[in-house]
Amino acid sequence: MFKKAERIRQYLRSEMLPSIFCSGCGNGNVLNYTLRAIDELRIDIDKVVFISGIGCSSRLPGYIDADGLHTTHGRAIAFATGVKTANPELTVIIFTGDGDCAGIGGNHLIHAARRNVDLTVIEMNNYNYGMTGGQLSPTTPTEGRTTTSPFGNLEEPFDLAALVVGAGAPFVARWPMGYPYETVETIKRGIEKKGFSFIEILTPCPTGYTPERGLKTSRQIWDWYKQNTLLASKYRQLSDEERASEDRMLIGVLQDVDKREFTAEWAKLVTQFTASGEK
Amino acid sequence: MDEREYAAIRKLLGESPAFIQGDVACAYGAVLAGCRFFAGYPITPATETSESMASLMPRVGGTYIQMEDEIASIAAVIGASWAGQKAMTTTSGPGFSLMQENIGYACMTETPCVIVDVQRSGPSTGQPTEPAQGDMMQSRWGSHGDYELIALVPHSVQECLDLVIEAFNLAERFRVPVIVLTDAEVGHMREKTVIPEFKDLHLVERERPTVPRESYVPFGGGAAAVPPMGFFGLGYRTYVTGLTHTEKGLPATSSAAEHTKLVSRLCEKIRQASDALVKVEERYLDGAEYAVVSYGVTSRVALNAVRLLRRRKKKVGYLRLIGLWPFPEARLAQLGKQVKGLLVPEMNLGQIVHPVREAVAGKCRVAQLPKIGGAIHTPAEIAEAVDKLMTGSRR
Amino acid sequence: MRTEIQLAGFGGQGIVLSGLILGEAAILDGLNAVQTQSYGPESRGGAARSDVIISNMGIDYPKVVSPNVLVTLSQPAYDKYHSLISEKGLLIVDADLVESEASALRVPFSKLADELGRRIVANVIMLGTLAKVSECVSRESLERAVLRNIPKGTEELNLKALAAGFGSS
Predict the structure, then answer these.
(1) Do B84 and A89 touch (CB under 8 A)?
(2) Are chains C and A in contact at 3+ CB pairs closer than 8 Å?
C-alpha cells in the first residue's frame, strides 16, 4: 500500500530530515506533490535542478537529493534563467513563496513570464512572510492582521495568477490544499510545458497567518479554501450575472496556450551561424 | 579550446592588431577565454561590451541575455556558472552597487564568474560619461560579511583584453568572482590591440570531481582548499546555498565552528595564494628615493610624470598595481622601507592610499593626490605633487 | 616620436569618427596610436573633441598636451583651443565656419563637401588635408581606414572627398 510513498522517499536527502516545517504547514504537501510528479514523468533526477530564494518555501530544495541552488531573497527566477539558458537540457524547477517572488522578486517574475524561458515555478502562497514571523506580504488580504499590519492591511493584494497571465506566461494554475491528484497532474503539465509555467499553491501557515480569524486546525483551513475558491471550469459555466457577483478565487488550470519559448528561439538563432559548420 | 574553435573565433574578431575600444576588448578577451554566457543590463559607459557580446555570443554558440536589471544579470551569471559555463557581466558604479549582495553569494558558494566594472564619476548618478576610480574600495568591501575576492585593474585597451582572459583563469582556478576595474576613459579609448595567437592562449578550466558522488566533498578539502566543482548536470546532486554550510553543503547555521571553518577557508584560499596573485609593474625603482604608486588610467599619467621628473634628475620610481585585491601588502611594505615618500594619485578622494599607508606602516611618508570631476590627472599635476612631497611640504 | 593631434568642433561634424580613422590609419602604418574623445549628450551641437596620439613607441599619457596638429571645425572650438598649439604646430580650420588668424591653414571643407553633394563628408576632406600637410599617416592607410568606417555604398563618395582633401592644399 505504501509502495508509492517508499518510491518518493528515495528522492529525499535523509540527512536533512526532519524538516523545519511547522505542524500544519502546506510546504510538505508541495514537496510530496512535486516529487510524485517528477517520478510519474520518469524524469532523470540528475538532470533536474531545484532553485529557490529565501523563506520557508525556499527550503524545499534542501530536502531533495538532487542538484539544488538556494539563492538570495527574491532572485531565484533570475538565477534560474541563467541556469536554463546556459544548459537547456536541464529541467529547472523553482520553489518560491508569495513574498519571495511577488515582493522583492516581482520584477524577475514578470520578466521571466514575458521572456517565456522554459521554467516551472511552484509558488507557495501563505499570504504572509512566514519565516520572519508573519509580516504583511503582497498577497495578504485586505484587512488582514499581520505583525506589520496590526490594525488591518490597508492595501489590496495581488492576484498572482492574474498578474502572471498578464505578464505573458503560457501556463498558469492555482490549487489550494485538498486537491492532491489534480495538483500532481498540474505540476506534471507545468514541467512538460515548454515555456514559463506558474503554479500557485495556496498553503496554510498556521503559525504565521490564517486568512480568517478563528481558523486553527489544518482541517479548518482546508475547508476555508474549499469554501472560498471556485473551479475555473465551473466559473466558465456561470451566466454573466452569476459571474458579476462571484468573488471567490478561481482554481485549476487558468491559462494553457502555446507561445514561442526563449531557449528554442535562441537555439534557432545560433543554428543560423553554426550551420555553416564552424563549430 | 581547440585550434578549430580558435580559428573560428579569430575570423569573427578580425585582423590583428585591432584598433578597438577598451569595452570591446573586454568582450574579445571574454570570447577568447571561453566565456559562453553573458547577461547584462545597459549602463553608460559599459554598454559597448554588452553590444559586442550580443553580437558575438550567438556566433560562437554561446548565450546572451539582457536581463531586467543588474541584480538579475549577476544572478543569471552565477546560475550559468553552476550550469557549467564560463560567465560574465559588465556594469558601472550604480549597477555594481546593485550587484553586491549576489557577489557575496558568489563568494559564499565559490562560483567562478567575471564582473567588469567600467567606473564612472559618482556618487549616485553623478557624471555618467566621465571617468573616475571611485569603486576601488567597493570592489573589496561592497558586500556584507567576511570574504575575499580577486580584482584586476587594466590600464590600456590591450590589458582589457589580456586581463579579462586572466580574470577567467583566476575565477576558474580559485572558484571566486573576479572583478575587472576599468573606467570610462580606458573603456572608450581606442588603442592598438594584439589578439593573442592560439599558441599564446593559456586557459584554465575549473576542476571537476573525479570521485563518486558518495565521496564528493563539494565545499571542503582543507584549510585553504579550492574544492573541485560538481556543477549541475554531472550527477553530483550538489546543494548550493548562501547559508553557512558544512563541507557537504548542508546548512549549519547554528554552528560557530562550521561557520568559522567555512569562512576562514573562503578567505584563506585567496590570501594564501597572494604570491601567485600579486601583479605589479615596476619601473625606475632601483635607487629611487620617492615613488608614485598608481593604477588604471592614472598610471599612464604617472609614468609620463615620472619620466619627466627623471629627465630633471629626480630619483623617482613607479609602481603600478595590476592585481589590486588581494592587496600586495608585502611589496608595498618593502617599498616603504626603501623610499622616503610615496605619492598615490587617484581619480577619487582617496581610496587605495589607505591600504598603501597601512602596508607602509609609517616607514615613509605617504601623500595622496585626489582628482574628481572627470578629467584625468595631467603629468604636470603629478610632477608638482611629487616635488611637494620631496620638499617636505604638507599635502 | 610622439605626434599629438587634436580635433574639435560641434557634435555631428564627425570629430570622433575622424579621430578613430586617423588612429586606425596609424595602426595600419605599423605605428602605435591612442584615440580618446569627449562630447556632450546631444547628437548635434554641443562640443566634441577627439585626441589622437601617434607614436613609434609605447604611449603613456593618452591626451594631447600641446597639439602638433590642431583642427577646429567650429568657432567655439577655435576660440577654446588655438592658443594651446605647439610652437611649430599646424592649425587647420574650416574656412566657412571659423574666423581665425591668417597663419592658420584655412580650407573651405564644408563648401567642398557641398560641391561633392553631401555636407557630411566635410570631415573626410579635412582628413585628406591633414594627412597631406602633416604626413602623420600614409595616404594608403588613410584610405583603408576611411573605407572601413563608412556606410556601405558610400565608398566612391568618400574616396572622392579624401582625394579632394589631398588636392586642396
Answers:
(1) no
(2) no
Total domains, chain B: 2
Calculate how close chain C gets to B379, using CA atoms only, in Å: 8
Residues C9-45 have pLDDT tens digits of 998 899 999 999 999 999 999 999 999 998 776 667 7
| Mean predicted lDDT score pLDDT of chain A | 95
Residue B77 sits in which domain range? 3-200
d(CA B60, CA A270): 8
Q: Does B17 touch chain C (CB under 8 A)?
A: yes
Inter-chain contact B61–A71, Cβ cutoff 8 Å?
no
What's the pLDDT score for residue B40?
97
The verdict on B36 and B174 lying in the same domain is yes
The phi, psi pair for C154, rounded to 5°, reads -110, 15
Residues 43-82 of C with CB under 8 A from B: 59-63, 65
Question: Strands of C105-107's sheet, edge to edge?
Answer: B18-21, B190-193, C32-39, C45-55, C2-11, C69-72, C90-94, C105-107
From C27, C36, C65, residue closest to B192, measured CB to CB? C27
Supply the CATH number for residue A23's domain: 3.40.50.970
Among chain B residues, CA nearest to C30: B17
Superfamily of chain region C2-108+131-150: Pyruvate-ferredoxin oxidoreductase, PFOR, domain III (3.40.920.10)
Low-confidence stretches of chain B (pLDDT < 50) are: 395
**Model pLDDT, residue B339:** 97
B329's CB contacts (< 8 A; 6+ apart) are: B355, B358, B359
The mean pLDDT of A187-210, rounded to a whole number, is: 96
pTM of the model: 0.96
- Measured between CB atoms, which of B188, B192, B303 is closest to C32? B192
pLDDT of residue B395: 46
Kindly write down the DSSP assignment for every residue of B26-39, as one continuous string: HHHHHHHHT--EEE
Alpha-carbon gap, residue A129 to A58, rounded angstroms: 12
ipTM of the complex: 0.95
Q: Quick one: cell of C105?
A: 591653414
The rounded distance, in Å, linking the Cα atoms of B297 and B133 is 9
Please tell me which of the candidates B19, B185, B378 has its beta carbon nearest to residue C33: B19
Residue B348 included in any domain:
yes
Q: How far is A220 from chain B (nearest CA, A)?
A: 34
**Residue A279 pLDDT class (50, 70, 90 cuts):** very low
CA distance C105 to chain B (A): 28
Q: Under an 8 A CB cutoff, do A75 and B72 touch?
A: yes
